[in-house]
Each structure stands twice: as C-alpha cells, then as structure tokens.
Amino acid sequence: MSTRSPAPPHSAKLPAVLVGLLTGGAAGFLLTETLRAFSAFVLDRPLDVAGTGGFLLAAFISVPLFCAVLGAVIAVRRAGPDRRSRQGR
Question: So where does this one cross the membrane (predicted)?
C-alpha cells in the first residue's frame, strides 16, 4: 500500500492555464491600447478617462481581465485530457 497520494488531474493543466491567462491578458491590453492609439492619432480625439464618468475606465480595466479569463478557459479546453492514456498506449 502506497502512502503517496496521486497528483490531482487538474495540476497537469496549470501551466496551460497560466499561459492562457497571460496571453489573454496581453491580448486584451493590446486591444485597449490599439483603440486608444487609433482614437488619438487617426480620429485626433484623445480618450479622456476622467471625463466619461468611469465608463471608459471600467472598459479599459474589464477588457484585459475578460480576455485573460477567456484565454485561460481556451487554454484549459485545448489542453484537455491526455489522449494517449485513453487509447491505452
């Protein structure tokens, strides 16, 4: 009888979650900064975060967070279970 407990199955997906979280957060940050640069240089109207009543600030905070969570979910789904163990190899 072994005293060592097996590792939980979700521990193998932790690297995928971290990579997805960081990648999604970076993509969300780039998305908001692209929007800000487009507004400033192309439309010649810089975004005024203080003058919008908090809506723009909330958007600039929530978009990277939403993208980070979405990236983590996609990474976990793509990591999936180990397919080789199902086939008995």
Answer: 12-32, 52-76
